[in-house]
Amino acid sequence: MLNAVIVGKIIQQYREEKGISQEVLSGLADIGRTHLSAIERGERKPTLETFYRISQALEVKGSDILRAIENEISRNANQK
Q1: What DSSP assignment string belongs to 14-43?
Q2: pTM check: above 0.70
Q3: Which pLDDT value is given to residue 21?
Q4: How far apart are CA 80 and CA 64, in angstroms?
Q5: Coil vs helix vs strand at 42
Q6: What per-residue confidence (pLDDT) applies to 71?
Q7: Residue 77: per-residue pLDDT
Q8: Cβ neighbours of residue 30 closer than 8 Å, sequence gap 6 or more
Q9: Residue 61: is it exposed, middle or buried by C-beta count within 10 angstroms (0-12/13-18/19+)?
């Protein structure tokens, strides 16, 4: 199962690496800041459309973000 906390954590890491605030990223992705905040906290899972918008706004391939999510899920599974 897809872990929403991991998804949010990875998106937040990419955003912070780019030095972009939630306010700026949400504007670039055309989503609400509170929605982005909920995604980053793992309270919501982004739809495919929202995931695509976020990746485009970050100027990162969605596949790269997804790969990072998969790697983190694998790391967590191996720690158990």
Answers
A1: HHHHHT--HHHHHHHHTS-HHHHHHHHTTS
A2: yes
A3: 98
A4: 25
A5: coil
A6: 96
A7: 86
A8: 53
A9: exposed
CA distance 22 to 77: 29
Task: Say whether 45 sits in a helix, a strand or coil.
Answer: coil
Give the span between the Cα atoms of 24 and 6, in whole angstroms. Answer: 22
- The whole-angstrom separation of Cα 40 and Cα 76 is 18
Query: Residue 23: which residues within 8 A CB-CB, separation 6 or more?
Result: 33
Residue 29 is encoded by which pair of tokens?
């992705």
12-65: per-residue pLDDT in tens? 999 999 999 999 999 999 999 999 999 999 999 999 999 999 999 999 999 999
Tokens found for residue 14: 């990419």
d(CA 30, CA 3): 24
